[in-house]
Design brief:
Number of helices: 9
CATH topology of the largest domain: Ribosomal Protein S5, domain 2
Radius of gyration: 32 Å
CATH class of the largest domain: Alpha Beta
Shape: globular
Helix content: 25-40%
Order of helices and strands: HEEEHEHHEEEEHEEEEEEEHEEEHEHEH
Distance between the termini: 133 Å
CATH architecture of the largest domain: 2-Layer Sandwich
Number of strands: 20
């Protein structure tokens, strides 16, 4: 008697009524092999992309990224010894820019963000290393605070004297007459043979010329060992962006080795912030602290601009980013160097922007808010 073969009752087998399974053609297995190879290739590509992304996030490229920073109150940072100080209303703010060394990934994404400016490293560093540039910027901040103290005290009627050893270049904007001739860290010690010991002397010497004039500068390049060897460099002066009749060297500078004989001790705690662009803000902040009335008329205002011993206001970098930071801070007014007014206006929105050439201009603008020259008369 025939029948089904014996099987394990736990896994019953039901005979296939259709008969035995035909052999499988080898070609039917090919798609599976191709699919497997595709997944392997895709995995390799994914690993490579991840590795590339990680590298791009860390690999540095020769550019810096400038992005909006913050607006910080000046008056709370100021301490005065040897003269009266007064309760405060309103606020004078100084503006900062975030400056970061670009990675490949950051550089790529910066092209998609209108608030970020990409700047070649040489425009920021010159011949300096990152650490040397940091120290130089901290020194510029120290010099700027000293100059601001001197200018503020002078406007309040105190006698102040200043000396220096040259005009150190802080920035050379793109398209400047000095582009490719001067770099940050260079110190100008003469113009056409006449000694230059302070940054304001450089401004006076340049403005005595006309656009198109060729001048010979005595320049001492920055050296890590501190040596100061002069060399001659020729520059054809351009026309100022805000006044085509005036000559323009096209650099921002500060006085090297500046020393002030101040009758009042003024201290400004700027923390780790570097650079000279808070000069105007500190000048106005010191005057506010030492004046019975409110220099801002009780309003929140912000400023940017270097300050020179004669009270004139110089160009700064990052006005684009600073304007955005001021707009977002809620300040009512932003004072900027006149030559950078048009740039600030592009990003101002409803923020009030006013151009200034010097401290007296700033005081006149602040008078429209009930402060400024209405509480601090301009001294001739």
């Amino acid at each position: 008697m025939t029948g089904f073969p014996a099987v394990d009752t736990l896994e019953p087998i039901v005979p296939d009524a259709s008969g035995p399974e035909p052999p499988v053609d080898a070609t039917e297995r090919a798609p599976r092999r191709h699919l497997s190879r595709w997944w392997i290739a895709a995995g390799v590509v994914a690993v490579l992309l991840i590795a590339t992304g990680i590298a791009a996030a860390f690999v540095k490229v020769p550019y810096y990224l400038l992005s909006p920073g913050s607006v910080r109150q000046t008056e709370s940072l100021i301490d005065v010894q040897g003269a009266p100080t007064y309760p405060l209303e309103g606020e004078v703010g100084f503006t900062t820019v975030s400056v970061q060394r670009a990675t490949a990934l950051g550089w790529a994404f910066a092209h998609l963000d209108d608030s970020i400016t990409i700047v070649p490293s040489e425009q920021i560093l010159g011949k300096q290393s990152d650490d040397e540039n940091l120290q130089a910027n901290l020194q510029m901040m120290t010099d700027s605070k000293e100059t601001a103290s001197a200018v503020a005290l002078t406007h309040l009627g105190y006698d102040v004297t200043v000396t220096g050893s040259g005009a150190t270049v802080v920035e050379v904007p793109d398209g400047s007459p000095s582009t490719g001739i001067l770099i940050p860290g260079d110190t100008i010690v003469s113009l056409d043979g006449a000694p230059i010991t302070r940054s304001d002397e450089l401004v006076i010497a340049v403005t005595a010329h006309h656009p198109g004039d060729v001048v010979m500068l005595g320049v001492q390049p920055y050296e890590t060992d501190g040596t100061r060897t002069s060399q001659d460099r020729t520059v054809t002066l351009g026309a100022r962006p805000d006044d085509a009749a005036k000559a323009y060297l096209g650099v921002s500078s500060i006085t090297r080795d500046s020393h002030y004989d101040l009758p009042v001790q003024v201290t400004v705690d700027s923390g780790t912030v570097g650079g000279p662009s808070a000069g105007l803000a500190f000048t106005l902040g010191i005057m506010d602290v030492m004046t019975p009335g409110s220099i801002t008329g009780g309003h929140r205002i912000a400023t940017t601009g270097t300050i020179r011993p004669d009270g004139s206001v110089g160009e700064v970098g990052g006005v684009h980013q600073k304007t955005i930071a001021v707009r977002e801070s809620g300040a009512e007014l932003f004072l900027v160097p006149r030559s950078e007014y048009d740039e600030a206006e592009k990003y101002a929105g409803s923020l009030r922007i006013e151009p200034v050439d010097n401290v007296d201009d700033a005081l006149q603008v602040l008078a429209t808010l009930g402060g400024g020259s209405s509480v601090i008369p301009v001294i001739d």
